[in-house]
Amino acid sequence: MKYLKVVKESCWDDTILNELLTPKEKKRKFPWLGDDYFEVVEVEETHFKYGHHRFEGKKEKEKYHYPTEEGIKEAIEEGWTEEQARRGFDIFDYNGTGLLHIEKIDDCFFGADFENTDYLAAKEAKRIGFCKIIPVKELPKEFDMRYFGWVDTPENREAIENYCNR
Questions:
Q1: Chain-centre distance of CA 91, in angstroms?
Q2: Global pTM?
Q3: Could you say which of 96, 118, 131, 149 has the lowest number of CB atoms within 10 Å?
């Protein structure tokens, strides 16, 4: 049986990543998403027999890895502060819109043997108390960039509302 699987890891919290959907469910649950956020997969009926809604290979225990000393040096050479380089992520203005979100700093991980994502960076930012993150379910339904990583401040929530009403 064919299903659609959410594959854009950096854009979704772990309640959505790898979720299997029928085309009808995709239209109902995620009408704002384009096809490039999904992958068509074939799954046996037994996959759902025991209530599984995720793939066995989901990286549930995946965690954020801090930059290596080599990565830190590289990032500092590229112009990042030592604090930013050691953390490996920071708050960024999304494409000059005034919307603030967490992103990993790619320069810190050049040549690393592990992979971090913006999603993992946002989880780590929340975990260490660097900043609060708006839960995806609290983002406006009409927001076309609903993913985990938006900084939770009154000003940013207002900016997101204004962005949706533009």
A1: 14
A2: 0.62
A3: 96
